[in-house]
């Protein structure tokens, strides 16, 4: 807040003051008063007025400087009314009252939104759990009635089940901290579960699986990590060739933690697409050609890894296959527990 700006705001009052002083001066001079008395009255009135303006300016400047400083230091600007000091002038008190009323209204709207969001999330989760029953019944019926047509039905039911599972984890991804149990898990066991879950496409497409150096345990949530690995393996299966595809799993450890490597010999990812693979809905050139990519799997994997204190990176090149590395830093367990 600058003094020149303050004077501009009070320009009208200054003109009124000058008019009042001029009127007094005319009255004094016409009533027989001396010129020196007239000059003294002008200097006294003018000095008192400027001093009053300057004192008022300093009071307001201090208040607004503190407000701006508090605003810069706050991570959440909407908390400003909570840290504002009490103003010593009317406009400042009015401003604080307005901000407090606005903050209260915003908090009510946010709470209403959170309630509606939780209600919608609960409905989605309930619907997904309910839809699993007819899917399971359909798969059981297909199993009991073997045939070429039923194999196609089972394949489509597996796709529906995978899509509903992805939807469930997407709904839960906004509140992972309420739905995880961090404990020591075996990478060999988790990788084994993922392979068993994907055995049909692996066998039908004659994709080789190479496992080695997996006797390492890390701190994570087995359910969430299993989902993440499932998304990565599904991508590997999608982009390798039938009969010649290879997916390799191995783990490596070091002073800073452990890492799980998942490599394939598929078509790879172009340099232009690689920086965007974790963006929601991004499918890239290969995803558009294959027409099966949704752009959600890797986005969810990245999001869940960050929430669990892990790191995930992808290394690839067009025609050179793809390598996904999930890192488990030594201190990630404690950082997740701490919030």
TrEMBL record:
<dbReference type="InterPro" id="IPR003594">
    <property type="entry name" value="HATPase_dom"/>
</dbReference>
<feature type="transmembrane region" description="Helical">
    <location>
        <begin position="12"/>
        <end position="29"/>
    </location>
</feature>
<dbReference type="InterPro" id="IPR005467">
    <property type="entry name" value="His_kinase_dom"/>
</dbReference>
<dbReference type="GO" id="GO:0016036">
    <property type="term" value="P:cellular response to phosphate starvation"/>
</dbReference>
<feature type="transmembrane region" description="Helical">
    <location>
        <begin position="35"/>
        <end position="55"/>
    </location>
</feature>
<keyword id="KW-0472">Membrane</keyword>
<feature type="domain" description="Histidine kinase">
    <location>
        <begin position="126"/>
        <end position="332"/>
    </location>
</feature>
<keyword id="KW-0902">Two-component regulatory system</keyword>
<keyword id="KW-0418">Kinase</keyword>
<dbReference type="InterPro" id="IPR050351">
    <property type="entry name" value="BphY/WalK/GraS-like"/>
</dbReference>
<keyword id="KW-1003">Cell membrane</keyword>
<keyword id="KW-1133">Transmembrane helix</keyword>
<dbReference type="InterPro" id="IPR004358">
    <property type="entry name" value="Sig_transdc_His_kin-like_C"/>
</dbReference>
<keyword id="KW-0808">Transferase</keyword>
<dbReference type="GO" id="GO:0004721">
    <property type="term" value="F:phosphoprotein phosphatase activity"/>
</dbReference>
<protein>
    <recommendedName>
        <fullName>histidine kinase</fullName>
        <ecNumber>2.7.13.3</ecNumber>
    </recommendedName>
</protein>
<dbReference type="GO" id="GO:0005886">
    <property type="term" value="C:plasma membrane"/>
</dbReference>
<dbReference type="Pfam" id="PF02518">
    <property type="entry name" value="HATPase_c"/>
</dbReference>
<dbReference type="GO" id="GO:0000155">
    <property type="term" value="F:phosphorelay sensor kinase activity"/>
</dbReference>
<keyword id="KW-0812">Transmembrane</keyword>
<dbReference type="InterPro" id="IPR036890">
    <property type="entry name" value="HATPase_C_sf"/>
</dbReference>
